[in-house]
Design a protein that fits this description.
Order of helices and strands: HHHHH
CATH class of one domain: Mainly Alpha
Number of strands: 0
Helix content: over 70%
Strand content: under 5%
Distance between the termini: 48 Å
CATH topology of one domain: Helix Hairpins
Length: about 130
């Protein structure tokens, strides 16, 4: 089995299918920040982790990579995206909103923009 196939199998095993709300419920177990910093702590953590994703992608662009290195980088980026997801789940939980509701609303918004030909551009209400 080549490295790319091994990476795909590892990702498949590590990231088994899980419903968004199930993940949100389970992620609370690791939310050890003070209740006085609800909303703020996961929002700041989300910004930091999103920056880590961007940094990994930036370095990939700068340094380039052969196929094997690319497979390793994909795993590293996926791990950072997982951290982003954790902060999203806990921020949504602190706001009292289910991740599945956020995902559904976001999909509806993007679908509407696509139908109106306004996926590109600026503004929330396009």
């Amino acid at each position: 089995m080549d490295l790319e196939q091994q990476a795909k199998e590892w990702i498949k095993e590590k990231y088994k299918d899980m419903e968004m709300n199930e993940y949100q419920r389970k992620s609370i177990e690791f939310a050890i920040y003070p209740a006085t910093h609800r909303i703020l702590y996961p929002a700041l953590g989300l910004a930091g982790e999103a920056g880590e994703v961007a940094n990994k992608v930036k370095k990939f662009i700068r340094d380039g990579a052969d196929k094997e290195a690319f497979e390793v980088k994909k795993i590293e980026i996926a791990a950072e995206i997982g951290d982003v997801l954790w902060y999203c789940a806990n921020l949504a939980n602190d706001l009292g909103i289910n991740l599945s509701d956020i995902a559904s609303e976001n999909y509806s918004k993007l679908s509407g923009r696509s139908k109106r030909g306004t996926l590109g551009g600026d503004g929330d209400n396009r």
